[in-house]
Every structure is written in C-alpha cells, then in structure tokens.
Amino acid sequence: MTEAADFETLVRRALAPVEPPEELAQHLENRLVELTELAAEELESWELSAMRDPRNWARPMAAAVGGTAAAAALFVVQARRRRNTRRPPPAQRFLGAAERALRDAAQDALRAVTRER
Amino acid sequence: MLPAISDKARLDAEFSDLYRRHLRDVYSYAYYRVGNHHDAEDLTEQTFLQAYRHFERAQRESEGRPLRPWLIRIAHNLAANFYRDRARRPEAAIEDAGIISAPHDTESLVEGRDELARILAGVQELPDDRREALIMRFALGMDNREIARAMGRSDGATKVLIHRAIRQLEGIVEEG
Predict the structure, then answer these.
(1) pLDDT of B109 over the 60 cut
(2) Residue B15's closest CA among A64, A72, A56, A111?
(3) Which is nearest to A13 in space by CA: A25, A3, A5?
(4) Is ipTM strictly over 0.95?
C-alpha cells in the first residue's frame, strides 16, 4: 500500500460514519407523520363554497385517500420503533383524521348539491 | 383520480425508503459539519422535513438519478444558514464519535487514536469546500459524481478539490 493510500485509510477511519441516536429517528418519524396529519386537517377546513362546484370534488377526495397512503408508508418506517403509549400511534391518528376529512367533504358536497336543488 | 392517488402513494413510499437509507448519511454529514450531536440532530431533522416538502419536485427533476446529493445539498444549505444565523464556526474540538464508533482492535486503538484525533482536528482546519468534500467522500462514501452534484461542481473540479483537500490535510497533520 502506498503512503498516500495509507493516509486515506486513516482519514476514512477518522471520519467514520456516525450512527444517529435512536431518539432522533423516533422523533423525526413522528414529525413526518404529523405533516401528513396537517394535510388531512387542511382538508377538513376545505371551503364549502368551493365544494358547490362538482369539478372540485375530486381534489379533497384524492388528497384524503392519498394522505392515507402517505401515512401508511410512513407507518412502515415507524413500525419497528413504535412503543406502547396511551395515545394512539401517529399513523392511526392520521387514518382517523383522513377518514373524518373524507366523510366531512362528502357530507359538505351532498349538502351543497341539496341546496342547489 | 386513481393515477393521482397511486402517484402520491408511490412518492410517499419512496420518501420512506430514502429516509431509511440515508438517515445515517445525513446525520454523519451534519455531525462532522457542526461538531456536536445536539446541533447535528437539529440539522438532520430540518433536512428531512425540508426534503419531504420538496420531494415530489426533486423526484420529477432527478430523472432517475440518486437523490442522496440532493439531500446533502439541503443539509449543506441549512448548515450554512446555521452558521450565518448564529455567527459561529464549527467547534474546534469535534467530539470523537468517529473514532469511538469505528471498529478498532485494542492495539490499533492505542496506536492510532492520537493520529485519528489529529486528522479530525486537521479536517476542521480545512477550507469549507475541502472539508465538505472529505466528509462526503470518507464519512458518506460518495463517489466523485455524487459529490459534484451535491456541491454544484463539475466532476473534474471535484476530483481536483478532493485531491487537494487530502494533500492539505496530510500537510496539516504532519506539521502538527
């Protein structure tokens, strides 16, 4: 091995990869799931006026279902680290929020159509 | 409607995959940039939150290329803001997590520990771009092309940068 290669080996050892703390991974995964929760809550505040136009109905529906898939994907990341807590896991909380948003959007749309008639 | 839903699900699954594969890379980069675990955790968190917000666009524009350089570039920009906002430089005495976590036998640990510590201290003395290039090369195992993309340089310029960084570091260590 040449001197230069020797030195590079030393640099590689000095700059060894650093494992992130377990708490960081868990905290970060929670934050990512919260982001999908926020997206679902935005759906809940979708303006009723926009829902009078049937062309807008697809958007909250798609976002809610897509958001559910997002939470499911992130849930896979969390699965290994989930701990037992009194609070439901973030993915489950998100699934509930997404379902509520979807249900509310459908009800609002129905009411808007009923009033139009 | 269905294609949009499947696209969103695919994007989220790919982001999860990106996160799992590169959490250690981003953390290692952040750690060697800021020199302590506390700030490295903050920087890592902000990097992934920002990446999540812009992931769809990054996917679209990457044309199938690996996204690790994009992630590291986000971390780089956040680290630059970190120093600008707090008007400070990396701590001179970086915590020796790299030395501790690297696999060593007892003999090499005793013989090499001082030398590795001198190298780490030397890395902190390098100009920013050279230090970053070495972190990406050795801590993250990135090749020249990936480093070039992360730093916004050509492959050739990156190769020269890394070569000079190693030679300068060698000089610093020998002088010390």
Answers:
(1) no
(2) A72
(3) A5
(4) no
The answer for residues whose C-beta is within 8 angstroms of residue A4's C-beta and 6 or more apart is B166
Give the three-class secondary structure for A30: helix
A67 neighbourhood in chain B, CB within 8 Å: 8
Asked if the model's pLDDT at residue A12 lies above 70, the reply is yes
A115 CB burial (10 A radius; 0-12, 13-18, 19+): exposed
Confidence band of B101 (pLDDT split at 50, 70, 90)? very low
User: H helices then E strands: how many in chain A?
Assistant: 5, 0
Q: Chain B contacts of A77, Cβ < 8 Å?
A: 16, 19-20
- CA A24 – CA A22 distance, rounded (Å): 5
Of B53, B52, B34, nearest in space to B42 by CA:
B34
Burial readout B71-81 (b: 16 or more C-beta within 10 A, e: otherwise): bbbbbbebbee
pTM: 0.69
Q: What is the mean pLDDT of residues A89-104?
A: 52
Which pair of structure tokens corresponds to residue B102? Answer: 């690297």
Interchain contact, B8 vs A16, CB within 8 Å: no
CA distance B76 to A81: 28
